[in-house]
Protein 1
Amino acid sequence: MLQFSEIETRRAAAGIEQAALAAKAGMHAQTYSKLKGKTKRGPTEATLKRLTEALQVLEQEAAAS
């Protein structure tokens, strides 16, 4: 499981839009945006897991095309 900063770095490097990653992870784009801001609590482990898995799928799809 990746940390949120790693997810963001890989997402940007792969050219994946925030909205696409959020949708693949089953969350609203606005919720994803809020994770980027300063919050008292960071994303939960479950959220990080969903984002990591979604990112991996999107990276594989991008590599295949």
Protein 2
Amino acid sequence: SGRVFAADHDGRVLAVDLQSGQELWRIELDTGFVASPAYRAGVLYVGDYDGTLHALDAANGAEKWQYASGTEIDGSPNFFEQLVLFTSQNGNLYAVHIADGSLAWQYETGDQLQCGPTLAGDKTFLGGCDSFLHIVDVNNGQAVGQPLAIDAPTGSTPSVLGNRVFVPTYAGEIFCYQMPETTPLWRFKNPQLAAEFKNSVAVADGLAVAASRNK
């Protein structure tokens, strides 16, 4: 659409022209945002501090609908067919209908979810504060096999490249699994570099690149 969309801690959502940097519209809501907005087909989707997912008209910021999870949303939404997928700190993954924000299904983990839902085909991957990697079939919201132990909490969104999934943790480790067998391929940990990984792993050219809190 030739626009850049952003949301901030003070509850502002705005659209900026991609070429000129000129602000096109702005709204101010009585909340705040940690997660980045996601865009699809003329609609902006963004979750707030209070656990509400807002669907906003990308042309002017007018609210189309909202869905209240009740607890802070830290990750950007994702999309599968006619569903919006998003996580909440209450430990749930939600799938709501794009048309009206009604609930299709929800999947519950054992602790907070601070990551966004990674999508590969019809499976989503969730790294949880319960120290597990959850694999969910987004057709029905059902778990695919047992959650995989990663031995520490994570707030990072898992990364997927081909048939491999990469999950960093707060214990300074990175796990790599092969799908769909969920086979553990390797586990990185360097005692001299041991510090929290707070962001996703970037994967390209045969390398996994991660930034740690050890500076």
Protein 3
Amino acid sequence: ANRAPARSDKLRGMGDELCAWLRESDLISIQLGYNDVLAAPMFTLQDSGMMDDLMAALDSDMSADDFESFLKSEMKLYGLLGDYFKNLASVLLGGLDSFRVNTLALVKDINEVTGKNADIVLVGYYNPYNNLREFENSDLTPLLDAMTIAVSAMNDYYSEIADMYDNVYYVDAMDVSLFFPDGMLY
């Protein structure tokens, strides 16, 4: 739904070629929906109207003290955080729902195209929000907790799908992180 129409048309036009690649594959790895779910804090901020006010303040010649006062009084940031987290929860739940539907559909489609002759590896997700805890303050705790729950839910669902199929395997992000510095998967 978020894909540009020209890109969707290009992908539809590649259908036969993609199916041929899949049929010839022995091993297919998948990571799906990470950006849709974990970019939810930014999507929520962009849709809230807070972003416009914040960008205007950042573009001004405001001192650090004036900026802090702006956040606390004019923008009433602390009062808006409650609404922000309610909206974030809605965006996250929608993203997780789409993730579940799309992941299962993709695995079913790949198995249909390949006749289950290819192994499918669902690669778990690294949680970048855990690294932010070293900079954590009490205002960020609900955000970090929500994002940690979202990453766990995605990994748990990958594991559930792997249990449903003989040719589907789940690899935890910690196992994969051996191949990447500091566990970074992106």
